[in-house]
Amino acid sequence: MASDEFDIIRRHFNQKGLAFAKSSVMLGIGDDCALLAADSSQQLAISMDLLQEGVHFLSDADPFLLGQRTLLVNLSDLAAMGAEPLCFTLGVSIPKADELWLERFSAGLAVVAQAHDCPLVGGDLTAAHPEHGTITLCVQVHGQRPAGAGMLRSGARPGDLVYVTGTLGDAAAGLAVLQGRLPVGASPARDGFSPESIAGRPAPTEFEAALISAFYQPESRVACGMALRGLASAAIDISDGLASDLGHILRGSGVSAAIDTEALPTSAAFRALVPEAARLSLVLGGGDDYELCFTVSNDDVPQLERQLSATGTAATCIGRIESGSGPIRWLSKGEEIALQVQGYNHFAPQQLTQERT
Amino acid sequence: MASDEFDIIRRHFNQKGLAFAKSSVMLGIGDDCALLAADSSQQLAISMDLLQEGVHFLSDADPFLLGQRTLLVNLSDLAAMGAEPLCFTLGVSIPKADELWLERFSAGLAVVAQAHDCPLVGGDLTAAHPEHGTITLCVQVHGQRPAGAGMLRSGARPGDLVYVTGTLGDAAAGLAVLQGRLPVGASPARDGFSPESIAGRPAPTEFEAALISAFYQPESRVACGMALRGLASAAIDISDGLASDLGHILRGSGVSAAIDTEALPTSAAFRALVPEAARLSLVLGGGDDYELCFTVSNDDVPQLERQLSATGTAATCIGRIESGSGPIRWLSKGEEIALQVQGYNHFAPQQLTQERT
Question: Are A195 and A264 in a shared domain?
């Protein structure tokens, strides 16, 4: 069956599970623009992410899981600003109109869109080169937050405590499982990437499945982010690794930090599968965590604990903001240790080929 | 010099010519989200376009012209809704950090951004696959319009007059010049695509340059679009060709139309270079015009003429909306003629290879 882009949009994207009605969306998919109602008491928060096959996701990624991940990682940017999701737009470029892929991908998107009342309101669908083209996804999320919500990268002050939500390193370890690099000694599998079917290998264990799930279905921190409004002096979501992303807060705020490496939270699955020597590099530089890193004044800790408890969020204090502009001081048992940690750099080819393809 | 994405963003995108300050932009590039002030009296209009090397633009396109075109074709969607440009976001995926390309591309963007007071406020920069990756651009434009501005695709009523701005077919003819398919008899040139340097061929004539310019620097219809608020019963921008895009209005409004093929406006350059037998297909199905097609009630024609005159926009009445839901009736000297016109279909591979690579 021949498809044109309008058919594909109608069948897979402009459907009620995904492009559902919302009172603040005056006009959704189907015109030159979508139209949103504006609210003068709110700021509009927007964030765009571009995701590419072979760079940001594996070529044989289960499209249902990929759909979930695509929207979740973008909602993470709203969470880091304390914004409530409003709607999203989506650009998709695909080499061919693969109906099954489109159906599964849009179903994955719909699960997350519905969970966050964040409908699809517009976008663009184009054909990549039919022979050597790859899949490109571009998502822009739109959210709202009251003025004065703070949480900018520039707001951290000396003495503030540094927190992270959840656990770190799980997603990077999950990607290593998918690529057959974990558990150590497993036969590398290049082609099967869903938790259900890692080609040529036994079914994943519970621990392996937990790490894979952390990669594809990162915990949403939207409710936690909204609870941090006016409370977190600075916040960021951890996409390139804690060392790199905390570094953005430090540079933005003109401060430094001391981080207790023993306080860094990890999961039981992570500790079971990742050899001890490799842990710190995944925890600090693995990326794809999509947890929040935020800073809070010491005086606000009681209120923070109430808010975290109210939203059911686990968060761990990992250190303290210091004055000065030096690099992060990494501590172990109270002593400073030397660490070389690099976040993900998109223009370092060796990383692209070793880590991401 | 090694670059990471933060260096590239700082040097080429987060610079004052492009990411300039604007009162309604509370926070621009550099945090998890950009923050925009909202105005309850306005609707926010948003539109996203994905543009791919080899599909939407030629691989050796002059990056300065490409930058202009990238933003102009998106502003055209705001124009079609009568929205005033507010700001834009940009996703860029490139195989390597080509400093000269980035500098020229961002300079082209800046020319259009400044002309429309539409600063860059955020986005994403990623590496495409270093070997077989191609350039992908994703732009989302944001604009504002008062509620009740109309101009939806669903608003055309039987008896309304159909207008187009400017002239049609120039951009498609310009692309043919760039590809060496025009003028007829020219030696095909596959590689040089700027007006200054069409490799292996003499400098373009004035007519050739005019058509190339229509492709890379389509006339902005933003001011015209704003002047049509509350006046045009329906509007659309012509990106896939008049036949296809007027078709969207007709289906959206549940009406048909009779179009006088002799009234379709063409330029002197177009008529000089395009053989008569090929003209109608470029005018109706060539695409890339980025002119507005809109409908107006007969009673509003005097007001329309005042508004067009005030904004210095040339627009031509090309036909009339009719009741019913049949295909467009094409007229020549008052008689209906049979025409097979197809707009650009992204998932028809023969078009991709013949027309767009």
Answer: yes
Total count of residues recorded for chain A:
357
Cα torsion at A342, A343, A346, A347 (round to 10°)? Answer: -20
Could you tell me the pLDDT band of residue B132, with boundaries at 50, 70 and 90? confident
Determine the straight-line distance between the first and last CA of chain B, rounded to whole angstroms. 32
Check whether residue A263 and residue A292 sit in a common domain.
yes
CA atoms within 13 A on the CB side of A302: 1
The single residue listed with the structure tokens 């300079």 is: B107
With bands split at pLDDT 50, 70 and 90, how would you rate the model's confidence at A347? low
Instruction: Say yes or no for a CB contact (<8 Å) between A133 and B134.
Output: yes
Question: Could you tell me which of B161, B198, B168 has the C-alpha nearest to residue B183?
Answer: B198
Assign residue B109 a region (left: φ > 0; alpha: ψ between -120 and 50; beta: otherwise).
alpha
CA A173 to CA A110: how far, in whole Å?
27
Q: What are phi and psi of A332, to 5 degrees?
A: -135, 125
Task: Tell me what pLDDT residue A134 has.
Answer: 87
Name the minimum distance, in Å, from the CA of A205 to any CA of chain B. Answer: 32
How many domains does chain B fold into?
A: 2
pLDDT of residue A245: 96
| Site of tokens 């008062």 | B146
Q: What is the pLDDT of residues A296-332, one digit of tens each?
A: 999 999 999 999 999 999 999 999 999 999 899 999 9
CA distance A334 to chain B (A): 32
pLDDT of residue B306: 97
Q: What is the pLDDT of residues A148-178, one digit of tens each?
A: 999 999 999 999 999 999 999 999 999 999 9
Which among B10, B36, B46, B78 is the top mutation candidate for probing chain A, defined by the most A β-carbons within 10 Å of its own β-carbon? B46
At A288, which CATH number? 3.90.650.10
- B259 and B311 assigned to the same domain: yes
CA-based nearest residue to B54, from B260, B193, B202, B203: B193
Contact present, B252 and B152 (Cβ < 8 Å): yes
Residue B323 has pLDDT above 50, yes or no: yes
Is A31 in contact with B31 (CB distance < 8 Å)?
no
Using one digit for the tens of pLDDT, what is the confidence trace for A282-299? 999 999 999 999 999 999
Residues B19 and B100 occupy one common structural domain:
yes
The neighbour count for residue A149, using CB atoms within 10 Å, is 22
Q: Which amino acid is at A355?
A: E
Alpha-carbon torsion (A181, A186, A187, A189), positive or negative: negative
Burial class (CB in 10 A: 0-12, 13-18, 19+), B251: middle
Report the residue of A346, A351, A354 to disrupt the B interface, i.e. the one with the largest count of B CBs within 10 Å: A346
Mark yes or no for CB contact B5/A345 under 8 Å: yes
Retrieve residue A114's tokens: 């519905």
**Model pLDDT, residue B349:** 39
Domain boundary among A146, A180, A212: A146
Return the residue matching tokens 């936690």: A224
Same domain, A218 and A335: yes
Q: Which domain holds residue A188?
A: 161-345
pLDDT of residue B210: 96
Question: What does residue B203 show for φ and ψ, rounded to 5 degrees?
Answer: -55, 145
Q: Which residue blocks in chain B are alpha helix, DSSP H?
A: 5-8, 63-80, 99-115, 170-178, 206-216, 222-227, 242-253, 268-273, 276-285, 301-311, 349-351
Tell me: do B179 and B241 sit in the same domain.
Answer: yes
Considering only CB atoms, which chain A residues are within 8 Å of B41?
38
Nearest-CA distance A113 → chain B (Å): 18
CA pair distance B12, B33, nearest whole angstrom:
19
- Asked whether the predicted pLDDT for residue B261 surpasses 90, the reply is yes
Record: contact B81-A134, CB cut-off 8 A? no
Quick one: tokens of B36?
A: 């925009």
- Contacts of residue A41 in chain B, CB cutoff 8 Å? 38
Mean of pLDDT values over A1-30? 88
